[in-house]
Amino acid sequence: MATYTITINEKTKAGKKLVALLESLNEVVSISEIRKSKGLDEALEDVKHGRVWEAKNAKDLINKCL
After folding, report:
1. Quick check: 10 and 19 in contact, CB under 8 A?
2. What's the rounded Cα separation, in Å, for the pair 46 and 41?
3. Tens of pLDDT along the chain (66 residues)?
4. By the 8 A CB rule, do 42 and 51 touch?
5. In Å, what is the CA distance from 28 to each residue of 16, 20, 23, 33, 42?
6. Mind spelling out the 3-state secondary structure of the chain?
7. How many CB atoms lie within 10 A of CB 42?
8. Which of 12, 22, 50, 51 is the most exposed place for a label (fewest CB within 10 A)?
């Protein structure tokens, strides 16, 4: 089975009809929405997983990165 990603503008008539057609093909097509995380959500995930840097100042941060 292959996976395809398409973008459909559901605000247009054609987009609504296309989504309805794909939903009617439930034996062949499965539809799942992809939620894109926003900047704050990504930052909170980084903190949660320990992907953070601590530095005294900009010079200290640059030294730690090098």
Report:
1. yes
2. 9
3. 788 888 999 999 999 999 999 989 988 888 887 777 788 888 998 999 999 888 999 999 999 888
4. no
5. 19, 14, 9, 17, 34
6. CCCCCCCCCCCCHHHHHHHHHHHHCCCCCCCCCCCCCCHHHHHHHHHHCCCCCCCCCHHHHHHHHC
7. 12
8. 50
